Amino acid sequence: MPKTFTGKPPIIIAHRGASGYRPEHTLAAYELAIALGADYIEPDLVSTKDGVLIARHENEISETTNVASHREFARRQTTKVIDGESKIGWFTEDFTLAELKTLRAKERIPQLRSQNIFYDGLFEIPTLQEIIDLVKDKSAQINRQIGIYPETKHPTYFKSIGLALETPLLTTLIANCYQGANATVFIQSFEVDNLKYLSTKTDLPLVQLVNNSGKPYDFVVNSNDSTYIDLVNTSSLKEIAKYAQAIGVHKNLLVSQDSTGKLLSPTSLVIDAHAAGLLVHVWTFRNEDYFLPLDFQGNPQGEYELFFNLGIDGVFSDYPDTACAVNQNLKF
To answer: How far apart are CA 308 and CA 311, in angstroms?
Structure first.
């Protein structure tokens, strides 16, 4: 089996918490993920009107909260262009934290996870500080250090409206004693400029996220012709290594699929990234057949085994118990 970059077993990153079992980005989802063995929990961060970082997949919250049923907020519904895409709904930056705390989370994909509808309306939107408090408490209880893996969502957009994410993120992390290259933190972003900026302000590990299509939104704004695919050639990987310690890549960039959904041969990306000095974390692994390649319908464990055997350094998973079980059964 190819070795990971560090020679240690891959880390299991609970994608938005144990989001296969609880509504995503809730303290309940993060707490369950820790109980199921996750090494890191992953909050996507957006800002409130009063500059507090909270965990939501998007700043538009109609899909993940009950905001539409709050008549007092009906007039807040609006249309905005976020990263070039027009969206209709309710946006976190138009609400104070106190207002957002009156909302409750709901399952984002109920058609695939009907079991999670049971929890709709039970859980608040957590702040970054509340997530850190949970991690610290649980780490002490189980005597195992749990890491956090925050993503700055839409950093160019939030900077444009005077709610830049980077300073409050670093301020919060420093206040909670997360410092240095060996801290149990990874800061991730789909954009490039904000990671380069962060690299001048912190020694905390940074992760360049790479999709299998499109381009970073800051490239769009800056009229940079490069795409995400361009970021994973050998010369670009060396450039990423100047400001980041890892890449977080769409799994199709490692093993692509044909038109029927059947897997093709692996690419050289893991080898190339390791040669550039970068860790490779891969997203997103889920148990439902809807998300699985044709080769592994009904067998999510087989997909994990395939990717672990490529020497990857970590996986983002909605089902950290499945990921952990496969991880523990493989020899590293």
So the answer is: 6
Cα–Cα distance between 270 and 189 in angstroms, integer?
Answer: 19
**Containing structural domain, residue 212:** 11-59+125-329
In the prediction, which pLDDT does 329 show?
86
15 is catalytic: yes
Please report whether residue 100 resides in a domain.
no
Residue 70: active-site member: no
* Among 25, 57, 154, 274, the one annotated catalytic: 57
**CATH code, domain carrying 19:** 3.20.20.190
Token representation of residue 214: 């499109």
> Do 1 and 330 form a contact (C-beta atoms < 8 A)?
yes
Q: What is the pTM of this model?
A: 0.97
In this prediction, residue 3 carries a pLDDT of 87
Judge whether 120 lies within some domain.
no
Asked, for residue 162, whether it belongs to a domain, the answer is yes
pLDDT at 1: 59
